[in-house]
Specification:
About 60% of the residues lie in helices and about 0% in strands. It has 11 helices and 2 strands. The longest helix has 29 residues.
């Protein structure tokens, strides 16, 4: 009773007293500005899609992807990584790579399918949100950083964005819009799948590279500048198909015996852990 009234409070040890958690005030401004720009691009895409200006709306998803990559890079380079930045970036990604592509696809052709169309759009949003939530709870793991587990949400959003940008006139007949369901549902399912997609995080920009790399970069810039609709569609769908091509090559090598040790014994199975083999960073 005395302890409840504070009479014996002086007898307590310092370690027994409840600690007050002090939250840090303020945010790292530079990476947060890029994240805010990412969110603005997603919002702009939604606004232009609602106004049926699809040719203007689609490129904003590409701009959001560039800003999403930059905010993570800058945060790591400047030592400005924080829990707030991680959560803020994830919320921005839900808008730019979840809601915006779904609204864009619905305005482009899924609206002609009625309930089936908006249900497919919601499936894309739900899968993007689940992927980002899975990313947040995975934490840092010392696994292979060469691969993503599931299709990254920016790459999944690039599929409908590039398709709409290549054909911005839209689909008004439900028979034409039925194949558009695959444009939304396939990337949505791949986002929450366990299929591995190649990552380019291990590419060291500070290391010396052959001069031919600059030639390929220049050729890519010229191709995007001269034929942006065709090149962006090829890039988006090529990355989607790259995971299945990699799986096919791996199975072919395993069946042909190239993946077996020289003594003919079976390779040891990797240890089973609760963590996925990779964790993507730039939204992942």
């Amino acid at each position: 009773m005395l302890e409840q009234n504070g009479g014996l409070r002086f007898l307590r040890r310092a370690s027994d007293r409840p600690r007050r958690i002090r939250l840090r005030r303020g945010v790292y401004l530079l990476p947060s500005l890029f994240t805010m720009g990412n969110m603005f691009c997603g919002y702009a895409c939604i606004v232009y899609a609602m106004r049926n200006e699809l040719e203007t709306a689609a490129p904003f998803i590409g701009f959001a992807y560039v800003l999403d990559v930059l905010d993570g890079r800058i945060a790591r380079m400047t030592g400005a990584e924080s829990e707030f930045g991680l959560q803020f970036d994830s919320l921005a990604d839900v808008i730019s790579f979840g809601i915006a592509p779904a609204v864009l696809s619905f305005a482009w052709g899924l609206n002609s399918l009625g309930r089936l169309g908006w249900a497919a759009g919601f499936m894309f949003v739900a899968c993007a949100a689940m992927r980002l939530a899975r990313f947040n709870i995975q934490g840092m793991s010392g696994s292979d950083k060469r691969y993503f587990v599931g299709m990254p949400s920016p790459a999944a959003a690039a599929v409908p964005a590039a398709t709409v940008y290549a054909y911005p006139w839209g689909l008004f007949d439900y028979r034409e819009a039925l194949p558009a369901l695959a444009m939304v549902l396939v990337p949505a399912i791949l986002m929450v799948s366990r299929i591995r997609f190649r990552s380019f995080k291990t590419f060291d920009l500070r290391a010396r590279q052959p001069y031919s790399v600059l030639i390929f970069v220049a050729a890519g810039m010229v191709a995007v500048a001269t034929h942006p609709r065709f090149v962006l569609v090829v890039m988006a769908y090529s990355y989607l198909a790259s995971a299945f091509i990699g799986m096919a090559i791996g199975r072919f090598r395993l069946r042909s015996g190239r993946g077996l040790p020289s003594d003919g014994s079976q390779p040891a199975a990797p240890p089973v852990t609760g963590e996925p083999p990779a964790r993507d960073t730039a939204a992942r």
